[in-house]
Amino acid sequence: MNQDNRLSGVLHILLHMAERQEPVTSELLAEMMQTNPVVVRRLLSGLRARGYVRSEKGHGGGWTLACDFETTSLRDIYEALGSPSLLAIGLRDPASSCLVEQAVNASLSQTFVQIEELLLQRFGAVTLATLSADFCKRRTSCSAVSRKDLADDV
């Protein structure tokens, strides 16, 4: 089953961008993501069209944030990516004439709708600021552990 990891990738990129005051090139972001700069540009183009990021060409150019992390939700970013399919599973034959399959399809379809509504609701409740705060907390925790390890070595 193929997974669409664009949302995860773009969120990763946005958090890296938030850590920098200056524009970030596609090349540098690609290096951080261990991917190709073209992939980064493709990911960010939908966000640029929706006003979440800006890009400047030329020397000193690159990508910058254009959104408020406090109000921009995961759902906003998800929709800017074109609302990719949330579930990798589906119906075998949505228009089957088999009564058994129709019963299965009805149950699964209803469940899929409920799952997607719940997931989108959760995406709407999580902001980029929430992710950024979690990252900062993890970074602080990692730094504290590293400092403690260094002190123990002395």
From TrEMBL:
Coiled coil: none annotated. PROSITE patterns: HTH_RRF2_2 (PS51197). GO terms for cellular component: cytosol. GO terms for molecular function: DNA binding; DNA-binding transcription factor activity. It holds the Pfam family Rrf2. Keywords: DNA-binding. The keyword Cell membrane does not apply. This is DNA-binding IscR family transcriptional regulator.
